């Protein structure tokens, strides 16, 4: 007799949703698409959006700039150094500089993690040009002419996509479509260029970790990635078990961050995820380089937010006190450096 599979134990898949259906003029189509996005956020915290409205030519161009920057000699890249403190999250970070810290903030624990849990990647981070809290740190223009403007142009293109995704989230929650927009009016977000250099797989190893398991701590993250792949999402039904998310050409992967989970009174999931070398990716024992571009969307830092309307009731009371965005974000930033 064959065993019956408990449906609740099956790993939920990351939904692939055609976002052009939300951008349509038909209200029923918009609502059903928004509901699908929200449902994916509630079950696994991730969704994959195709036809999202950002031209692929713009994405390809930004990947080209990223590859050009990381191909520079180290002495050129460090002309835009990330400051020692994580609270100023801008500029270039060399491999091993940043650590992934999951809810660990005390000094001794962070020090221990820094010594044992470094991820072999390099990054460059930027934001809006008029940010008084975290001003941008650029390499001299003659190091890579056009790089600065390319980053800024792509940042503001991502901001338009961010707002449309937030509109879909609002519709899914039964709120006014513009509900989340005033909370993100200053574009206090971050564009990160990431490069995982080619790496030799240790002898006898079956896989290679490229980024340790973690959650993001923003509202949402929009991820552009190349075709190398490797991102894996924790199965919410089986903690410690991870589900590969294969790259979908032309799509973006969107996930909810810790802040959105808390803001939604935990009806939305912020899910652990990691990056590993996909099976079969290595050639002669070497895993190829991987490039990705996450755009971290955060609330305006000057705000204090309370639970989203409709996410709490007498039967399901608020779990969190009103939260200062500045305090929350800076605490998380500081632990990474």
UniProtKB/TrEMBL annotation:
Domain Fe2OG dioxygenase per the UniProt entry, residue ranges: 186-299
Gene Ontology MF terms in the entry: dioxygenase activity; metal ion binding
InterPro entries attached to this UniProt entry: DIOX_N, IPNS-like_FE2OG_OXY, IPNS-like_sf, Iron_ascorbate_oxido_reductase, Oxoglu/Fe-dep_dioxygenase_dom
Keywords assigned by UniProt, alphabetized: Dioxygenase, Iron, Metal-binding, Oxidoreductase
Family per similarity comment: Belongs to the iron/ascorbate-dependent oxidoreductase family.
Official protein name in the record: Thymine dioxygenase
Species: Coprinellus micaceus (Glistening ink-cap mushroom)
